[in-house]
Amino acid sequence: NSSKMWSGRFREPLDATFESWQRSFPFDVRLLSHEIAASKAHAETIAAAGILTPDELKQMLDGLDRVIPLSLEESTKLTNLDALRDAHKLNRAGVDLVISASSSIVALNPQAEDIHHFVELQLTKVIGDLALKLHTGRSRNEQIATDMRLFVREAIDNTLTGLTAWRKALVELAEQAGEATMPSYTHLQRAEPVLVAHWLLAYVSMIERDASRLIDARKRMNLCPLGSGAVAGATLALDRSIAARALNFDAPTPNSMDATSDRDFALEFTQAIATLGIHISRFAEELTLYSTAEFGFLDLPERFSTGSSAMPQKKNPDLTELIRGKSGRLLGAATTLATLIKGLPLAYNKDLQEGQEPVFDAADTIAGILSVLPAFTSSLKFRYDTMKTAAHSGYLNAMAAATYLTDKGIPFRKAHEHIGNAVRLAMGEGTPKTQRELQQLTLEELRTICPQFGEDFFPAITLEATLDCHDVIGGTARPRVKTALSEAKSRL
Ligand code: ARG
Fold first, then answer.
1. What ipTM does this complex have?
2. Would you indicate the residue range of the signal peptide (predicted)?
């Protein structure tokens, strides 16, 4: 027990099973780089308060740097157990840690209770008893709050980078699509024709909102908890702005009770990521659907598809399906955090330790999704002919036809009814084979429904005219989409 950070008050050893069960080190070890950065910032703060001499500060900072035994470059070579063992031998500072190839960290220290304890133990190995001064004027409660903020801030930045890549892929795809058309759907029934670019830009709008939510959350969370102590504030007169500045926070947090128990920043992050996941999942669902033989709007890229072990003919949309599935996990993380926090009295409670893994999982899951989504999106090849045929049949120009009549001064309700009758007439009694489209009706037939139909009806309901009559901001008229596309491009 003497290796614990709090053993003085205890005489009985911990139950061994409880001891190992309550540890967070197996997962919070991934906070190592943040814990070191925060510890260095704290060391500078207490040095400024006269707790460390300039020389002690220097030793402390050097020692903290040596707690990370391997450079990232070195660590990427660790692909198997042997390499791992070698790396451990190489280990400059003799600390009990190596970093594996996937930059997940393999910790070899059986004593560490959590990442804070680990760094203190390792620092003691490296610089001796001077290490024991580091905890002056601080608490693990403010440390974990700080480490998690640093983690979330980095995860937000990584997500934003990935989102920009996806947004760029969508904008490029929209550009390639030019004036290609497709049906739009409401109730999953054909509604009106739209430009393929217009459909793709709908996702660009969603991503832009997602990005702004993350940017907004980042601003709100960028305050430094260090100096908040265990709950009531540090017991030394520390200049909290030193650590805030060193860690690139905008300022110290304003209330110690809030700062040590607040996890809004993690909740907001997971919620924003969950919303992003919902959008990505809708995209994945549409592509899954559009790649079926029934729609036939695209051929899945082989590079991103898989076969069936049983049915030789199959090419399955595993990528989009997995994305749809993984977005469920993102929602799960947000739900876990909200449920975890809602019943907690102020301030720190150990329950908060359970809030770490969902945040890590959300960050890893979105990083994984965004590692494949931009390249997948760029590789999509649409069957524009099939899309156009679908946009051309099934009376998708009926609303444009009704608009033709309202332009002749007929009230819309009446015009709607006339066109409804025209659709009825075109559908006929027979099989789909004998069905006609509105443009295939004769003027004589149309005039039996409404005498105001003229020759100019036919040019008014072509595919192009049907698109272009939606000439409003946000509409699918070709010039509007062109403008929307160049605006989306300039925002990249
Ligand atoms: N591992 C702990 C956590 O994640 C660190 C804070 C421990 N504080 C405490 N008072 N036990 O929450």
1. 0.97
2. none
